[in-house]
From TrEMBL:
GO terms for molecular function: carbohydrate binding; peptide-N4-(N-acetyl-beta-glucosaminyl)asparagine amidase activity. One of its GO terms (cellular component) is cytosol. Residues 288-755 form the Glycosyl hydrolase family domain. Residues 1-21 form the signal peptide. This is Alpha-1,2-mannosidase. One of its GO terms (biological process) is glycoprotein catabolic process. SUPFAM superfamilies: Six-hairpin glycosidases. It comes from Caulobacter segnis (strain ATCC 21756 / DSM 7131 / JCM 7823 / NBRC 15250 / LMG 17158 / TK0059) (Mycoplana segnis). Keywords: Signal. InterPro entries: 6-hairpin_glycosidase_sf, GH-type_carb-bd, GH92_a_mannosidase_put, GH92_N, Glyco_hydro_92, PNGase. It holds the Pfam family Glyco_hydro_92N. Residues 30-281 form the Glycosyl hydrolase family 92 N-terminal domain.
Length: 777
């Protein structure tokens, strides 16, 4: 989502280097810098799995129209660091967060960040990558201008900073409540900063940005006594955005309120490092104070760092990977990135602020749960959430589902989240893709929530007529383009979501509901133009919109972040139907090849941020393409899936800061690689099936939440042997091109025997293809 045009060169070392001895642990294999350059939009800072606090450096804050490249706050190529803020997105295609920026300063504090190309013009500092260390749960850097060594670690709701100041220098810590990613004048609606008699700093700020009216509270304690503080309202004590009132002096009172607050906390000259603890709360300042003791009760930085490391070691142990060192690093970093969101957004006592801006208890229908937010559902329903059902305990997915249901009840519109963070809806992207997340969990037997309440929430979301042309979709069987933008995409995405409702309703014995949504699941056909062979937008009178160019990409046009080439394959519930509609196997393979081999020399996508990682008209950097390589399986040519996956993996991923071809999108790009490397992928979540591709590891084992172990082995894999000759499951020959979920969770061994030449007879029969609504023949 939200990507720029880029195509990474092939890096065959990822897939084909001879396996080296696995000398590093899973924890040591993770490189948080992967994706911090290019368009990956990841951050390198300190966080624990699904932590509420993501404590990371911000290298620059630019006006919102220039903020895309720094959507995660940090960009590897930037020369300066502003400071360290406590909330970040990992790989989002839109910028926001960057809350509660702290930075250590020596001597007299400058109150403005200054300019990157003018050293000393503000509180920002130069730094060198040579001084940086990034590990899961830990980050460190030396700020060159002040020579302060800054270290960061985190707990679930707290962040710890440790600053080593040069001897003989006056040590101060600056907090800038103006600073924010996706910055623009007037973003901070109000903020407060105050100091208690015991030295505890508390405050809050309310911002409008990607999400409106978002409140966040904080509490800060230091392990050294304050010798002084100064509070500034930069709207009034210096010229600021046209609100000049010269002559004002710093405010040394215990409290200040306003829209442009900066605080400076003075510790004099210190004999040792200063440790700073920050806790966040969505509820209140008192909630933040209580959260201060929820992770590390004191100021033991090293103990908290050890706890963070232990948490990551446990989380990463879900998969044991044997692969060449570059691929192993890439994969463990991908697994790390999939374990950052949806993140906790509840206080230690369970309370949280919901979509209605009210504080709620952490209970739903009498069941206690931990509220999670940051739902990039248009991206993550595809592979991220299905992966979490395999690598996380069921309690985690149950918390996610309960959070979605609670959000639906608390929403003023009574629908499930679309793209939610910090409990607030952004209305970004399309579809109602919380629905497949819930249905996928239900069909896999993860049911620690009220199933009836879940199905009711799903149906309400799918029948809320004012949302995204749903009223016309229910009447006409498609979304009309003359009434709703991106209508072609909305039609097919609604149809897939509807199919997952039908699956869950049928399983629950709700025959009438199932029948209604099974009918709607076939609506994808209503926008498919059989004459051109493409999905197209139709008008209210039933005609297709003209003129038609299948390569055209424009925001607000017929498609969402894509074009007809990508969206014509989006009917994951009925890919057999797509094959039939295109004229059968040979015609489908021909069209797929035409997509991957398309000559883009005369196509300009420079206007579209979200189009990256092109292989012809296949766009790996954006999610609508993510299942397309597996589409050959549905047309009886699995060997072509294997060839395309080799092409994609070798060109779209590498273990460098520029190693992601597009935004990681809260783990979706990484989850795609994790599944693909194991040799299978959830093309149709809620089907309980995985399409088989080819592996990119010599051996890997899923250590499943139920205590079972599912192992994948690749025999004879090399650059020269990228094809699958045969597959066995638990010693028995597997002739079909899909795995069943129950086969994975039962434990066992999947073995691929690799070959230099394709096996063009394996899994080609209709009976051996993944399930589809429409029979293949």
């Amino acid at each position: 989502m939200r990507l720029r045009l880029a195509l990474l060169a092939s890096l065959s070392i990822l897939a084909a280097t001879p396996t080296l001895a696995q000398t590093s642990s899973a924890y040591e294999a993770v490189d948080p810098f992967i994706g911090t350059g290019g368009d990956g939009h990841t951050f390198p800072g300190a966080v624990v799995p699904f932590g509420m606090v993501q404590l990371s450096p911000d290298t620059d804050i630019l006006p919102f129209r220039q903020s895309y490249a720094r959507a995660a706050g940090y960009r590897f190529g930037d020369p300066t660091i502003l400071g360290f803020s406590h909330t970040h997105f990992s790989g989002a295609g839109h910028s926001d967060l960057g809350d509660i920026l702290l930075t250590p300063v020596v001597g007299e504090a400058k109150l403005e960040p200054g300019e990157a190309d003018k050293p000393g013009s503000g509180y920002r500092s130069r730094y060198s990558h040579d001084s940086e260390v990034a590990q899961p749960g830990y980050y460190a850097v030396t700020l060159s201008d002040s020579q302060v060594r800054a270290e960061l670690t985190a707990g679930l709701r707290t962040g710890l900073h440790r600053y080593a100041f040069p001897k003989g220098q006056r040590a101060q810590v600056l907090i800038d409540l103006r600073s924010s990613i996706y910055n623009y004048p007037g973003k901070v609606l109000w903020s407060r900063l105050r100091v208690a008699p015991d030295g505890t700093i508390t405050g809050y700020r309310e911002t409008r940005g990607w999400a409106p009216g978002r409140k966040l509270f904080f509490a800060i304690r230091f392990d050294k006594p304050l010798v002084g503080q100064a509070f500034h309202n930069r709207e009034t004590d210096v010229p600021y955005k046209g609100f000049a009132q010269p002559g004002r002096t710093p405010n040394d009172r215990a409290q200040i309120q306003g829209r442009a607050l900066v605080g400076v906390f003075d510790f004099g000259q210190l004999d040792g490092p200063l440790t700073v603890k920050v806790a966040l709360s969505s509820v209140s300042e008192d909630g933040a104070i209580a959260n201060l003791a929820s992770d590390e009760p004191g100021f033991d930085f090293d103990a908290q760092r050890a706890r963070a490391k232990a948490a990551w070691e446990k989380a990463l142990a879900a998969v044991d990977i044997e692969a060449p060192a570059p691929m192993r690093k890439t994969l463990y970093t991908a697994l790390y990135h999939t374990l950052l969101a949806p993140s906790v957004f509840a206080d230690a006592d369970g309370r949280y602020r919901g979509p209605d801006d009210q504080v709620h208890e952490g209970k739903l229908d009498g069941r206690p749960f931990t509220f999670h937010s940051t739902f990039s559902l248009w991206d993550t329903f595809r592979a991220e959430h299905p992966l979490l059902t395999l690598v996380q305990p069921a309690d985690y997915t149950n918390d996610v589902v309960n959070s979605l249901i609670a959000s639906q009840r608390q929403s003023p519109y009574q629908i499930l989240p679309v793209w939610q963070f910090h409990g607030q809806e952004t209305w970004t992207m399309i579809g109602y893709h919380a629905v497949p997340v819930i249905a996928d969990a239900w069909m896999k037997g993860i049911r620690g929530y009220d199933g009836k309440a879940a199905l009711d929430a799903m149906v309400k979301s799918a029948t809320y007529a004012p949302y995204g042309g749903l009223g016309d979709y229910m009447k006409l069987g498609y979304v009309p383009i003359d009434k709703e933008p991106e209508a072609a995409s909305k039609t097919v995405e609604y149809a897939y979501d509807d199919w997952t409702i039908a699956r869950m309703a049928r399983d629950m014995g709700q025959a009438d509901t199932a029948a209604t949504f099974e009918k709607r699941a076939a609506y994808w056909r209503n926008s498919f133009d059989t004459k051109t062979g493409f999905l197209r937008a139709r008008k209210s009178d039933g005609t297709y919109r003209e003129p038609f160019n299948p390569t055209a990409i424009n925001y607000g046009s017929d498609y969402t972040e894509g074009n007809a080439w990508q969206y014509s394959w989006f009917a994951p519930q009925d890919l057999g139907g797509v094959v039939k509609t295109l004229g059968g196997d040979a015609a489908t393979v021909k069209k797929l090849d035409a997509m991957f081999d398309f000559d883009n020399s005369k196509v300009d996508y420079s206007h579209a941020e979200d189009i990256a990682g092109l292989i012809g008209q296949y766009i790996h950097g954006n999610e609508p393409s993510h299942h397309v390589a597996y589409m050959y399986n549905y047309a009886g040519a699995p060997w072509r899936t294997q060839a395309r996956l080799t092409q994609i993996v070798n060109s779209q991923y590498k273990p460098t800061p520029e190693g992601l071809s597009g935004n990681d999108d809260l783990g979706q790009m990484s989850a795609w690689l994790m599944f693909t490397s194991l040799g299978f992928y959830p093309v149709t979540p809620a089907s309980n099936e995985y399409a088989i591709g080819r592996p990119f590891v010599d051996k890997a084992a899923l250590n499943l939440p139920n205590g079972k172990r599912f192992t994948v082995r690749a025999v004879g894999m090399s650059d020269a042997a990228p094809y699958v000759a045969k597959v066995t499951l638990n010693g028995q020959t597997l002739t079909r091109a899909f795995l069943k979920h129950e086969e994975i969770v039962a434990g066992g061994e999947l073995v691929f025997t690799m070959s230099a030449t394709p096996n063009k007879t394996w899994a080609t029969r209709a009976a051996d293809r993944p399930t589809s609504m429409t029979a293949y023949r």
